[in-house]
TrEMBL record:
Region (Disordered): 89-124, 226-256, 560-587
Species assigned in the record: Chlamydomonas incerta
Upper lineage: Eukaryota, Viridiplantae, Chlorophyta, core chlorophytes, Chlorophyceae
Biased segments, Low complexity type: 89-102, 226-241
Name of this chain's protein: Methyltransferase FkbM domain-containing protein
Annotated signal sequence range: 1-27
Keywords assigned: Signal
Biased composition (Gly residues): 103-117
Length: 587
């Protein structure tokens, strides 16, 4: 039998064995799965996985309608979730074979995917590996399951609180409450013990000046010179792709020459096989010229430190794509409840089909297709931290890293504050560019028809993470961000980051080529000397400030020629009418 035939037979045998194992796992009696789950710990028991698989199957019709999934593909995705080999199970178990529940954060696995542990079986495991599906699919499935399973209970609790029963059970001091923001949009907040929720319940909203600036920036088209800069960057990427293709051709030619030389030698041809050269990834663009629609920035808003979702829900309700990052479990539940109450958990994404340089997004029914919530924090590296917050302002989490375990974290929590749980940390560029990189590497496989990938450029980034802002900016990598709104809190910046000078945050923004203002995205703009004086004054008064940053490429002239002016979008009547600078944010 030839080597090729041997490989085919071996491959067929492996595939057959894998199919048999999958069939065995999926057809185990429920009693045996429950018994195995009891030995494996409450967080990762296989008894929890059986109903989850049923829920994935129940969603098959919706997924088929939205992304043309077939039942076979859906089954493959479920198998990828629920099975792992013995080596993975042993590696996850603290004692090498007998896994115990690891808690909500695990070892820093994304979005709670480590919220449990593998079962005690040494041969196989039903550990739930949502992280294997990628950040986008994981976020979609968690939202879908929440709407189906948990949201009805929150509806009842909010109704009880509205009737005077107080709700109870969700948060100490008052449960949950719901407020209708506009027709079709309802927001869930804490019924007590939270300052942001109180202002929303009272109808005043939260930091409305900042929300106004965010919406203004999202509606602005990019000026022509910024589009030209984008086009130049895209052309550089094309040149790099062409160089990779040329390298591939040279490698293929060398491989063919080696094979031909081996074939000419009868003895050598018995031992030398034709080298296999991997195919290069498909180019993202053709050699044709890039149109303005293909190079302009989609209106994507990234909300880091989403809290109860005030900014994310309002921006998504205006029709823009939103990527929200929040690591506190109770805050995550409230944001997900708001999505459920305002249109469900549709996986379709408006970002892939929206006009790239339009001045306003086209509203679509429901928030689920536009608001994608990631239940973890962002930083400069993958790690695991803890969150704590004021007992009277529970949703405003402060990050605590570099502690060994929960006991050490509890010992460092100040009086009047409470520990709120673990916080997995990821890099922003890894999350937003994951599907793009997988597509280039050809690694998507059966997940290629999942949720639409988010745009690789951010129109507006809002960062409010109570002193952890420098780490979030450190995880941007090569992401293009046009506008940044962040909080400058000298007390928290120096308290959360040992040895950190608060002015370094502003200096970092200047080095990244941003102009800074304390009034809004339309200026007036601060000179580098004024920035230093501002930081010194704020540090002396220990007063937090809102900082608005606009990228230099939004301005029409070179930095040394600039007067005090706002970023110049393409002239439109709407932009001209909105030229009035609002008052600064309240602090």
């Amino acid at each position: 039998m030839s080597p090729t035939a041997q490989r085919r037979v071996l491959l067929a045998a492996v595939c057959g064995l894998a199919s048999c194992l999958l069939l065995l796992v999926l057809t185990l009696p429920a009693q045996r799965r429950g018994a195995a789950g009891a030995a494996g710990g409450a967080g990762g028991s296989s008894s929890d996985n059986a109903p989850f698989f049923s829920r994935v199957a129940d969603c098959s019709q919706q997924l088929l309608q939205q992304r043309d999934w077939t039942p076979a593909e859906l089954q493959a995705v479920a198998a990828r979730l629920l099975t792992t080999d013995a080596r993975t199970a042993a590696a996850q178990a603290p004692d090498g074979g007998k896994a115990a529940a690891s808690g909500a954060g695990g070892s820093g696995s994304s979005s709670g995917s480590g919220s449990g542990s593998s079962s005690g079986s040494s041969s196989s495991s039903s550990y739930l590996h949502l992280d294997r599906l990628g950040y986008d699919m994981e976020a979609q499935l968690r939202q879908q399951v929440f709407c189906e399973e948990a949201f009805p209970l929150m509806e009842l609790e909010a109704a009880a609180a509205a009737e005077g029963g107080g709700g109870g059970g969700f948060a100490s001091g008052g449960g949950v409450a719901a407020r209708r923001l506009r027709p079709g949009v309802t927001m869930y907040v804490y019924a007590g013990d939270d300052e942001v929720s109180r202002t929303i319940r009272d109808g005043a909203g939260w930091e409305n000046e900042l929300l106004t600036e965010v919406l203004w920036a999202l509606r602005q088209p990019l000026p022509p010179h910024a589009l030209a800069s984008q086009r130049q960057q895209e052309q550089q990427k094309q040149q790099q792709e062409q160089q990779r293709e040329q390298q591939h051709r040279r490698s293929a030619a060398a491989a063919a020459a080696a094979a031909a030389a081996a074939a000419s030698d009868g003895a050598a041809s018995l031992f030398v096989a034709v080298p296999t050269v991997a195919q290069p990834p498909a180019a993202a663009a053709t050699n044709a010229g890039l149109s303005a629609a293909a190079t302009a920035v989609p209106p994507l808003f990234v909300d880091v430190g989403a809290n109860v979702g005030w900014f994310s829900v309002n921006v998504a309700a205006e029709g823009f794509a939103v990527a929200a990052f929040e690591g506190m479990a109770s805050n995550v539940a409230l944001v997900r409840a708001s999505v459920c109450a305002s249109g469900g958990s549709s996986s379709s994404s408006g970002s892939s089909s929206s006009s790239e340089n339009s001045t306003a997004a086209a509203p679509a029914p429901g928030l689920g297709g536009r608001l994608r919530l990631y239940a973890f924090g962002l930083g400069s590296r993958d790690t695991s931290c803890f969150l704590f917050s004021d007992i009277n302002n529970r949703g405003d989490g402060i990050t605590m890293c570099d502690v060994a375990d929960e006991a050490a974290a509890l010992a460092k929590v100040p009086r009047g504050y409470a520990l709120r749980g673990r916080l997995p940390i990821r890099r922003m560029d890894d999350v937003l560019l994951q599907r793009q990189r997988q597509q280039q590497e050809g690694a998507l496989g059966d997940l290629s028809r999942g949720p639409a990938a988010l745009p690789s450029e951010v129109k507006v980034l809002k960062v409010d993470v109570e002193g952890y802002e420098p780490h979030v900016l450190g995880g941007l990598g090569t992401l293009r961000v046009w506008y940044i709104a962040t909080e400058f809190n000298p007390v928290l910046l120096s308290g959360v980051n040992s040895g950190y000078r608060p002015v370094q945050l502003l200096e970092d923004l200047l080095e990244r080529r941003y102009r800074l203002s304390t009034a809004g995205f339309r200026g007036p703009w601060l000179s580098p000397e004024e920035v230093k004086r501002l930081a010194a004054d704020a540090s002396a008064r220990k007063a937090p400030l809102s900082i608005y940053a606009a990228h230099w490429d939004l301005f029409p002239r070179a930095p040394h020629q600039l007067a005090e002016q706002a970023p110049q979008p393409a002239p439109t009547p709407a932009a001209a009418a909105a030229a009035t600078t609002p008052s600064g944010p309240k602090r």
